[in-house]
Design a protein that fits this description.
This protein has 823 residues and is mainly beta. It has three helices and 52 strands. The strands form seven sheets. The protein has a 28-stranded antiparallel β-sheet that branches. It is globular and about 100 Å long.
Length: 823
Amino acid sequence: MKHIILVLIVLVICTMLPSFVFAQIKNGKVSGKIVNTSEQPLQGATIAIIKAKDSALVKAAVSGATGEFELEKLPVGKFRIKATAVNHLTTFTDVFDITEALNVIALPTLKLQIAEKNLGNVSVTATRPLIENRIDKTIVNVEAAVTNVGSTALEVLEKSPGVTVDRDGNISLKGKQGVIILMDGKPTYLSAGDLANLLRNTPAGQLDQIEIMSQPSAKFDASGNSGVINIKTKRTQAKGFNGSVSATYTQGVYPKANTSFAINSRKGKLNLFANYSYSYFRGFNEISIVRNFRDINTKEIKLIMDQTSFMKFEGQPHNLKLGADLFATEKTTFGVVLNGFYNERTGSGSSLAALQDRTGSIISYNQALSGNVDPWKNYSVNLNFRHAFNKKGKEITADVDHVYYHTRSQQYSDNDSLNRFGNSSDNRFILNGNLPSEIRIYTGKVDYAMPLKGDAKFEAGVKVSLVKTDNDAQFTHYDKGTSSWVKDNRSNHFLYDENINAAYVNFNKQIKKFGVQLGLRLENTIAKGEQLTNSKNFNRNYTQLFPTSYFSYKLNDKNNLGLSYGRRIERPNYQDMNPFQYLLDRYTYREGNPNLTPQFSHNIELSHNYKGQLNTSLNYTDTKDIINDILKQDDATQTTFQTKENIAKRRNIGLSISYNKPVTKYWTVSLFTNAFNNRFEGMVNNKYLQAELSTVMLNMSNQFKFKKGWSAEISGWFRTQSLESGLILAEPMGMFSLGGSKQVLKNKGTIRLNIRDPFWLQKFRGKTQFDNIDVRIQSKWDNRQVSLGFTYRFGKNQNNVPQSRRKTSGSQEEQNRVGANSQ
């Protein structure tokens, strides 16, 4: 009987063996790499491949010294990678297929976020460092700084590594003007003044990250002599319904407040999101200007104009973003994003200018009252598409944008001349201005990426942009003789059309420890400007090439070297070409210049990165035909006005060092220092200018983490003397802030308190002495503030998976060049 049973078992095994062996053929292979938030390899991370259907474990491995892993002999099916590491959050990949035809899968690099364990509450909270130093960019994680509560986007930018904001809102990077500001990958299309106003009215609570790139690749628009800063707003694609609400009250000299909410719902193939914020803002700007008018021959002072102005501003900006992503298939995604902004900003000011003789005795006064109502609105529509051909990174993306800006500014200036005793001299001048401005922008672009053999990648793309601006300034002044309002000769109607056609190719390859990336961008610009009032027109058509190159070498696991070169262009902002006048009083105004031409720069940068914590870079930039603010003065009428001209060339040499490291378990320090030398040389007001100055900037932040959800921060920045626009010598300036926060409501809520610039250190002082111009300027504003904020997060998140979906658009440069009058 035993022999019969044994024979039956052998027969059954022999019958089933062929199908059993065939079913167990496993020749699938999956490989990839694990890094941390600083792009450094994670050794010893656990890599588990699990079934997509039920998360059952199939196989596991451990990452090596370079963070790389490989799993072999895998069956066919649908899977997902689960990556875990000590002190890091668990990360999941998207679902991928292993088939008989496609059985070798190379996954994109997985990035694990740092996690902090609070054993008392048995909770895990993701934390990000304030500053992340990478070989190609610096990342500022906005929410990591307690002192950002109650701040605006402009104030967060101002204390970011290497960034400087001058008194007019011009943004510089490492001592170089001409930086392009993007919002979620899209340009703002604004002039410096209006961009500053937008950022002043954008709460820091809406921001997620700030990416600072001093040497962008050919994929980006060639505009921006000193690089690109991308301001990323909060956005999640976590599965389920989730969101947050926040409210902040700020008290300076005047009150300020903002509220906002963000919601996101992802279910199945559809992801919906919405962000809205409302702010109330009141502020002021106090300016003192002393001008010395000198004898053209002896250079002795003849007259002195001592002017003091006080201006108040008020605004109630509304900002709305709506969007949707449709994941049509695992490889194809469609998206739409709608943005809307509205702010009916108002301002009023008073100015008293005393005309004195050389001894300081009063000759006469000019008393001026001014005001403006400036309803500013814009909307934009972005349609985007992405199709991934495979899991290896071969994809095509497309974006179409329409952006519309409109303002209908109304302003008045009432000037009364008084004698030295303060009595009216019956020489009153009243000017009214109706200044509608409209800007329409259309852009479209397509990008293609294709991985090649041997760890190489090829990218190419095309872009077309069309811009139309219509600025109609109608000024009238009161004629006492006829007792009527008559048209003023400041009136003008300026039309500007621009078409930019661009194409680029980019190639990068890694050869063991050596990496190379080469890119070339071609841009053709066709521009036409018309001044209908005086029939002054211009037409321009030029084509330029913009090469970029990057070289990197990995010395070892701790040290990386980089060398890059790029040629870039800076086109004039649309409103800088607008020839209208904007008055402070009859003696001081600003005027556009339609004859501006682009400026070009060559940028070289050498960098070294140590363990992702210490980054050192040496940069050299040579710029020609710089578009600069300059002052012009009419000695006969004692008027001074500010305009922009292509005045000179500039050479910039700089050394920057940034360091970010946890000193202890509870204390993390972030330091940045930048020493640079700027040299200007050229013709200003038909006079030869040569100016040179070295400047040092220092940013510091200390983050403290305590038990039971408490945290604190002390941060600040300081800048030595600097040259603004090559003409104004700005005195040293700095500020510091301190703040604290507490997690409440089971870590779903956060209360933050911030004290900004408590000793009111941040004030502007500068002077200009060149040719017949001798001016001293002092300015202060409402930046000593105390803010109290509360944020509540709600909803349940399912497992977060890395999203390769990018939220950029085709408008990479145009929005930085829009603008209306900046008050």
